[in-house]
């Protein structure tokens, strides 16, 4: 059986995403993103399901540092609407709860229920891990914020459903492979993801990106981050709509390359239907 690795414990959102896209694969948990990338590099698993950004919390920072140097390729994307349940051991009620544990992003995305009940937030390594710890404790003063699947796995009662602050709370995942699998050029919407570092000259970024405007390319994501702790070395991560085989994107990437010290394409893959329809 083929395997797909995800960060977190069984029942985490990444586990749910892995099963949704690859139901026939064995989903393999890993403690950290670094462990996921190492499992891929060693050949222990076939694919990785990695969260890259959340509509409320923003980017998942580690990934932008790990992905460009990993030698891995993006072959797809998946959007998962995030729903948090407040869960606790049997016998607990909203009144017995004193502390609520979850991943820092989970706590940040469910501020309203914490504030309304005066619960104390406790940061855990991940959502499903918090659920497991709460289940093992059997303590009716402790609760976790985690997906419904985690409550089923660990035998917890759900005290409040869908407690996230915003309905549009969605996480975007990318699917990574050791081999590049380039989407066909004329079989539906395609995204191209790349990283680049502009030359250290005035207006370099403006000039580098000019080709995307003049060639009518829609850039859906552009983020910068520092390299090696130096504030002068900035790398950019970008997603654009289109295929490098199409003339307009070819020209835009040529212009970008001219003004860049480095340009690397990380993946050319089908755009998720979520982008067009707002659901998976």
In words, what does this structure look like?
The structure is a single chain. The chain has 280 residues and is an alpha/beta fold. The strands form three sheets. Strands 1, 2, 3, 4, 5 and 11 form a six-stranded mixed sheet that branches. Helix 6 packs parallel to helix 7 and helix 8 (204-214) packs antiparallel against helix 9 (247-258). It is elongated, with a radius of gyration of 21 Å. It contains ten helices and 15 strands. The protein has helices at 13-21, 33-42, 61-66, 104-108, 111-117, 127-137, 148-154, 204-214, 247-258, 274-277, and strands at residues 3-7, 26-30, 47-54, 58-59, 73-81, 85-88, 99-102, 120-123, 142-146, 157-160, 170-177, 190-198, 219-227, 230-241, 260-270.
Tags for this entry?
280 residues, alpha/beta, six-stranded mixed sheet, five-stranded mixed sheet, 10 helices, 15 strands, 29% helix, elongated
Helices and strands in order:
Elements: E1 3-7, H1 13-21, E2 26-30, H2 33-42, E3 47-54, E4 58-59, H3 61-66, E5 73-81, E6 85-88, E7 99-102, H4 104-108, H5 111-117, E8 120-123, H6 127-137, E9 142-146, H7 148-154, E10 157-160, E11 170-177, E12 190-198, H8 204-214, E13 219-227, E14 230-241, H9 247-258, E15 260-270, H10 274-277
Parallel strand pairs: 1-2, 1-3, 7-8, 7-9
Antiparallel strand pairs: 3-4, 3-11, 5-11, 6-9, 6-10, 12-14, 12-15, 13-14
Helix pairs in contact: 6-7, 8-9
Distance between the termini: 25 Å
What is the H-and-E element order? EHEHEEHEEEHHEHEHEEEHEEHEH
Unreliable runs, pLDDT <50, ≥5 residues? none
Main sheet: strands, sense, barrel: 6 strands, mixed
Rg is 21 Å
Mean pLDDT: 93
Helix residue percentage: 25-40%
Judging from the principal axes of the Cα atoms, what is the shape? elongated
Beta strand %:
35-45%
Number of strands: 15
Continuous helix count:
10
Structural class: alpha/beta
């Amino acid at each position: 059986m083929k395997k797909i690795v995800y960060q977190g414990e069984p029942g985490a959102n990444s586990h749910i995403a892995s099963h949704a896209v690859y139901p026939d694969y064995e989903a393999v948990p890993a403690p950290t993103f670094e462990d996921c990338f190492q499992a891929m590099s060693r050949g222990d698993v076939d694919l990785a399901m990695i969260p890259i950004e959340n509509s409320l919390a923003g980017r998942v920072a580690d990934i932008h540092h790990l992905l460009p140097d990993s030698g891995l390729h993006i072959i797809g994307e998946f959007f998962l609407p995030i729903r948090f349940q407040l869960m606790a051991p049997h016998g607990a009620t909203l009144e017995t709860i004193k502390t609520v544990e979850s991943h820092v992003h989970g706590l940040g995305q469910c501020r309203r229920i914490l504030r309304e009940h005066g619960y104390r937030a406790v940061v855990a390594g991940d959502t499903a891990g918090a659920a497991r710890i709460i289940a093992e404790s059997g303590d009716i003063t402790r609760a976790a914020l985690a997906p419904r699947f985690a409550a089923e796995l660990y035998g917890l009662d759900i005290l409040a459903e869908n407690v996230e602050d915003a309905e549009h709370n969605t996480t975007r995942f990318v699917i990574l492979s050791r081999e590049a699998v380039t989407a066909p050029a004329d079989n539906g919407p395609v995204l191209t993801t790349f990283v680049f570092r502009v030359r250290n000259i005035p207006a370099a970024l403006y000039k580098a990106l000019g080709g995307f405007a003049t060639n009518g390319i829609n850039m859906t994501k552009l983020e910068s981050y520092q390299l090696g702790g130096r504030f002068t070395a900035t790398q950019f991560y970008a997603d654009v709509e289109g295929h490098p085989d199409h003339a307009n994107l070819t020209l835009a990437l040529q212009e970008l390359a001219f003004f860049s010290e480095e340009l690397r394409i990380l993946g050319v893959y089908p755009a998720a239907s979520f982008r067009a329809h707002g659901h998976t």
